[in-house]
């Protein structure tokens, strides 16, 4: 979200009117959207201009360059805030600002903080010093204690539009053809789009998954498709993501929505029940991957299930 768009958000209006909650949880599965939104939010809090955030004053520039001493980011070294950093944060909360008239504490990966550390933070969130703000950043809130949630304003960060994602990809040097392919599979997630665009194997993965839907029909083909999939152990998460994405797009076509070429083809080749069951199959395989099951066995099971679903729920 750029500065112009952020200025229209209710959070920015609350800052201008002096009504912003002192504790917020920013929520989005898109880590890039979270990063951009939180940066604009901190800039608006530290901005010296009437038109917040201006992006030009000293306060905004210091936030942009991560050198504002009154804006503290946690965790500092690890992926998750640990006990020592919680203690450090609480100590810093009760020290006066150095340059500005307020202090801002940004806590990344808040959904990964364990319950003990969240409880330590609870009292500070409940009774913060004047002009002290807490911004908790989370990809989901399932692990955040209800007592924490009840003391924070929860803000769902808007998704990037397709054109905004294309602009980000262009700024990162992604070729237009690659950017358009990535856009079809990123589920409106800019972080996912960047991940796909920087993966040199992504176009091959898309081609292979589309071939699984289009061409994989008989058991004698299993060896050929398995040998191809065995090469993507490191990228199998992307294989499954692309497969789920196509399932979702084909499902939308079957219930009357629009679709691109591959979505329409899958909707013709697979019944509604087949696509629903394929989706369930892939979700189970995702869980198997988390349990570090044998990769070749996972691939073989995946292909067998595709054939089973195709024949068990045929197109009538």
Question: Compute the gyration radius: what is it?
Answer: 23 Å
What percentage of residues falls in helices of 4 or more residues?
Answer: 55-70%
H/E element order? HHEHHEHEHEHEHHHHHHHHH
The helix count comes to: 16
In the CATH hierarchy, what is the class of the largest domain? Answer: Alpha Beta
Number of strands: 5
CATH homolog superfamily of the largest domain: P-loop containing nucleotide triphosphate hydrolases
C-alpha termini separation: 46 Å
The profile of the biggest β sheet is: 5 strands, parallel
* Structural class by helix and strand composition: alpha/beta
What overall geometry do the principal axes of the alpha carbons give? elongated
What is the number of domains? 2
List low-pLDDT spans: none
Strand order of the largest sheet: 2-3-4-1-5
**Average pLDDT figure:** 91
Report on the structure:
- It is a single chain.
- The chain is of the alpha/beta class and 316 residues long.
- It folds into two domains: 3-156, Rossmann fold, CATH 3.40.50; 199-312, Zinc Finger, Delta Prime, domain 3 (Up-down Bundle).
- It has 16 helices and five strands.
- Strand 3, helix 6 and strand 4 form a beta-alpha-beta unit.
- Helix 12 (222-229) crosses helix 16 (295-312).
Quick summary:
This protein has 316 residues and is an alpha/beta fold. It has helices spanning 3-6, 10-16, 31-46, 58-64, 83-93, 115-126, 146-150, 162-171, 176-185, 190-197, 202-215, 222-229, 236-254, 261-269, 272-290, 295-312, and strands at residues 23-27, 71-74, 103-107, 132-138, 153-156.
């Amino acid at each position: 979200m750029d500065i112009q768009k952020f200025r229209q958000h209710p959070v920015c209006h609350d800052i201008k009117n002096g009504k912003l909650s002192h504790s917020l949880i920013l929520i989005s599965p898109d880590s890039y959207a979270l990063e951009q939104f939180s940066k604009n939010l901190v800039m608006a809090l530290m901005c010296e201009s009437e038109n917040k955030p201006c992006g030009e004053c000293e306060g905004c520039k210091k936030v942009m360059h991560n050198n504002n001493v009154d804006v503290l980011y946690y965790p500092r070294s690890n992926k998750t805030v640990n006990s020592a950093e919680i203690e450090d944060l609480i100590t810093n909360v009760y020290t006066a600002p150095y340059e500005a008239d307020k202090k801002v504490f940004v806590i990344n990966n808040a959904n990964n903080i364990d319950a003990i550390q969240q409880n330590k933070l609870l009292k500070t969130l409940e009774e913060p010093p004047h002009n002290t703000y807490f911004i908790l950043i989370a990809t989901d809130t399932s692990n955040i204690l209800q007592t924490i949630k009840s003391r924070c304003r929860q803000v769902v960060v808007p998704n990037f539009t397709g054109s905004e994602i294309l602009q980000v990809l262009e700024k990162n040097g992604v070729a237009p053809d690659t950017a358009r392919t990535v856009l079809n599979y990123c589920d409106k997630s800019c972080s996912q789009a960047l991940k796909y665009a920087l993966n040199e194997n992504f176009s091959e993965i898309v081609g292979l998954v589309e071939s699984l839907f289009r061409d994989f029909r008989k058991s004698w083909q299993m060896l050929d498709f398995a040998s191809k999939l065995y090469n993507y152990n490191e990228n199998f998460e992307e294989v499954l993501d692309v497969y789920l994405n196509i399932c979702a797009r084909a499902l939308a076509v079957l219930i009357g929505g629009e679709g691109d070429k591959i979505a329409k083809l899958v909707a013709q080749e697979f019944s509604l029940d087949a696509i629903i069951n394929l989706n369930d199959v892939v979700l189970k395989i995702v869980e198997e991957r988390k349990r570090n099951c044998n990769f070749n066995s996972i691939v073989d099971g995946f292909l067998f299930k595709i054939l089973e679903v195709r024949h068990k729920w045929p197109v009538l």
